[in-house]
């Protein structure tokens, strides 16, 4: 995260990672206010055992792209629709339009949960337990929709002709 | 890819994957014209040994998001700026704004090469050879910039005060 | 509908259809969380006697376009301006920019009522009762405007020079 | 169509309708230059036996919306990206954001062919021949994709790992 | 105005016209719900002695453009940012992008007051009293700014180095 | 006009004014490069007998708005889509979003002809000859559409069912 | 500032300048309501000893660009997201897209504080005290981030794996 | 500059600086491909005697913002409309929307010349020679407009009523 105000949005990522039993750390790294911390953080990430980085930011959201410049780990960007944002569109474009060789895997506006799911999918490439967990998670998503349909039906919701 | 016209854009991904020595397949799967093929392709992808999927598309680019709905493999989306696109912005928004649980790792407009680099980064998480290859690739990118500086300097380009 | 939160918007369609005496069903079908249900729903729609499909969605709204891929019934799309939407513009573009052969009849942001009117217009093509009902509905719309003018005039509203 | 220059775009609709054996007429009706012609055309459309109207327009594209105001037939709008258009976005918004009661079924930018497919789908609601024709058309679309895959494969295109 | 909800925005125009002593009428004319009333209103406007028309509208705001099609009086358009608007941008584009020969004099989003000032300027072309009134109005605008500066200065506002 | 490159766009206005027999002058006034000339031009416009001002500009198009600040004559703005423009949208917004009291009558992108028609409409408010001329001009527009229909019909164009 | 309502946004600039010990004045200058005051203010700015100008504005924000036309002092523009703004995007484009020779140094939406920091950086070019102050300010920004990290860590915030 | 392809755009800045007799250097610094070079370049800029930095970039243009994070010199950003840009709007937003404390003075799309003029204005704050040069430059701009008027007048261009 680039600032404390991003915490509310980004904590959704922690919830998902915890649910998948994936150890993680969450910290503040501001590309513009603590740029050296960002360089060090990104450069040491792989050595320290980190395997995927999730970086959120609002406005001119340089954090994911700059972190990506200092590491070859996959970097996931979360555009944050902060107070001064232009509907989050400024951050989407700041993250997504990277030059050849240094991609940022960008997810939707404020979609920190999805960033965590994507990170899990990356880690699951060679991890049977996570692959299983993801399949189960999908079933949960589906079951939740099906349960909602049941509830609506009971509540007099007109489901069938 | 969703259509043959996307081939020109997407072949940049093949070039990068070949360079990294990563086996891959490239094929046409249209979400709207061959929807069953898409369902089967996505559902069987993991079983068939695929580990990352790259899906490009223009206009209402549903391919990456729908493929992601039928697999838990990571899916990378490449918005393609085709003739009828609105600057590729329609495809960016069609890909990036996915609901919670089913992310698409979206890269820049027409950035098929970056999709391939991102796929390589994902595969490199547990692969020392690819990690090394990525580090070398980065050095190549840097060297190319440095060489350009040299050339410009020789060509009378004013580099220093 | 793709999610329960869309119900508030989409129920306006039910009100209109009920008013026209058109039998209908309303249910949840998530393209990303219940993709197989979506395939089945769309594929069986014609056989089950459905004649027009209305599909709403927010963000990367793939439901109408993907339903259209699995049926040749006319599909009407309703872009929903949900919390994370970019003014509904992301959903408009996700729905409207379909490839040749698989159209979605897209209506305005949150315009579920209009989707139902459009469905009624389609059904009225060969239905004298519905054609009459539509003509009467139009007169109602007009009368409501004329009554408002009367009220404003009585309220001291300056209507004429 | 609102102007002669729209003919090039709109003729794609004729091709599709001819293919489906649907009788049609195509003419110029300018909402701003021949407004009375537009009123008459729209008001008499149903009596004259027309069953669906397709209206294209660029810029401030009022034709579909205004035609819809004078008839209860379904009206399909085709935003045209003309020289002075803002990427066709001005026409999309001019067509799609209609008030309650008077919908326009809007398709993608320059998607006249899709407007014709949508019209066919509407007419097919109560027409077994057209329903069959639409199913066959879909198979054609699919076959064309499959044939392209074959051709690419023969051409040395790397289709499988 | 196209609907009663526009009244709150458009009444600012009445205030300005009253201030300039210009007789006016304000009424509802919906291009889509009372299209014949619109045609008649626009066609008779000049004969009835109206000299400038101000038309406001939200969403696909066809009123000003269609009124302009039925009269050669100058028509001023006021884009209204209603609930379902896309920041008023949909209405700006619906009004401003008119075809050659049928202009709409478009003012800013919700700028009904400015529409009235513009109407006054048009009427003042051959009217010395209104020309004077406009000059005085400008002085009032200036004086109000100057008075605000005075007040801020008294309130400890730091005006000078 | 703000620059010589605008001449090609703006000369369409001259053609229309000449056609209506309205005397006019056309000159360069750059708000940023000849700001004093702009102030003088705008301030003296009424005294010199000018009755309507048409001002075109690209990019940050301040000319119409600033001219309007120095005169109470009606000012018509023409957004010009120059090389560095963002589809003319930057100029539309620069012109249209004026503060209360100082309106600019904005027309479509590159619509200099329409600016001239609008100016004619303003002058016609108290001018029977111009009113007649405008009515005839409208008939011409209509006739041109009708003639095109004839031509297309002769050319084998399918006009009727 | 162009209007009193901008004061709330622009006062953030005063706070920053006071903090750096830079004498300043803040006043209202409306480009459209007090255009002569604007001309005089801009023309006399250098003579009066001003060295950098900060100009904020909403909507069609002409103040910075027009002030820049009447002085060769550097002018910093602050786009203000006022009630009628289109997300501040109208003001960004009104300020940034200046013609060659008359630049405006534009900062982010509502970023008055940043305008003041930028002004300080300009003044610091030849001022050792301000250069020092800026370096210290940066350290403060960094320290604030580091302190937040400490606080979050104490509050049970999971900072490390 | 971030890449060699930016050279064509950025060289306009060299021309202006040369014209003002301001010594400068122009070099390639890619924030993503040579990130350490960028850090060093920005950190040493002040010590090496640089006084203003101009940074151009296309797409997700992080160069100006990141350079600004590593120096307290004023940084001017030039959004470049490269092949894959979204009309330069992506780069404008990437540059302009900086967090408090680290501004980028952003100029228009491809406006490298204006970046150089702005740099000259900053340097002129305490430099009488440059102040004079800027005043003369403005007169040149004005004279060029006036000369164009003369030429147009001679060429039969209708300048006066």
From TrEMBL, chains A, B, C, D, E, F, G, H:
Residues 1-145 form the PurE domain. Its EC number is 5.4.99.18. Substrate binds at residues 3, 6, 33. Gene3D superfamilies: 3.40.50.1970. It catalyses: 5-carboxyamino-1-(5-phospho-D-ribosyl)imidazole + H(+) = 5-amino-1-(5-phospho-D-ribosyl)imidazole-4-carboxylate. It holds the Pfam family AIRC. It is an enzyme of class 5 (isomerase). InterPro entries: PurE_ClassI, PurE_dom, PurE_prokaryotes. Keywords: Isomerase, Lyase, Purine biosynthesis. Pathway: Purine metabolism; IMP biosynthesis via de novo pathway; 5-amino-1-(5-phospho-D-ribosyl)imidazole-4-carboxylate from 5-amino-1-(5-phospho-D-ribosyl)imidazole (N5-CAIR route): step 2/2. The keyword Phosphoprotein does not apply. SUPFAM superfamilies: N5-CAIR mutase (phosphoribosylaminoimidazole carboxylase, PurE). SMART domains: AIRC (SM01001). GO terms for molecular function: 5-(carboxyamino)imidazole ribonucleotide mutase activity; phosphoribosylaminoimidazole carboxylase activity. Catalyzes the conversion of N5-carboxyaminoimidazole ribonucleotide (N5-CAIR) to 4-carboxy-5-aminoimidazole ribonucleotide (CAIR). This is N5-carboxyaminoimidazole ribonucleotide mutase. It comes from Hymenobacter humi. The lineage of its organism: Bacteria, Pseudomonadati, Bacteroidota, Cytophagia, Cytophagales.
């Amino acid at each position: 995260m680039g600032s404390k105000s991003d915490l509310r949005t980004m904590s959704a990522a922690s919830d998902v990672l915890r649910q998948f039993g994936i150890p993680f750390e969450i910290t503040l790294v501001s590309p513009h206010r603590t740029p050296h911390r960002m360089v060090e953080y990104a450069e040491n990430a792989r050595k320290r055992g980190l395997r995927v980085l999730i970086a959120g930011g609002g406005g001119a959201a340089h954090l994911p792209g700059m972190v990506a410049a200092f590491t070859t780990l996959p970097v996931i960007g979360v555009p944050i629709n902060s107070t001064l944002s232009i509907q989050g569109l400024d951050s989407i474009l700041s993250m997504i339009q990277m030059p050849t060789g240094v991609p940022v895997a960008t997810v939707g506006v404020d979609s920190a949960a999805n960033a965590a799911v994507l990170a899990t999918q990356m880690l699951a490439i060679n991890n049977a337990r996570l692959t299983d967990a993801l399949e189960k998670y999908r079933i949960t998503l589906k079951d939740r929709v099906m349960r909602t349909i049941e509830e609506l039906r009971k509540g007099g919701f007109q489901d069938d002709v």
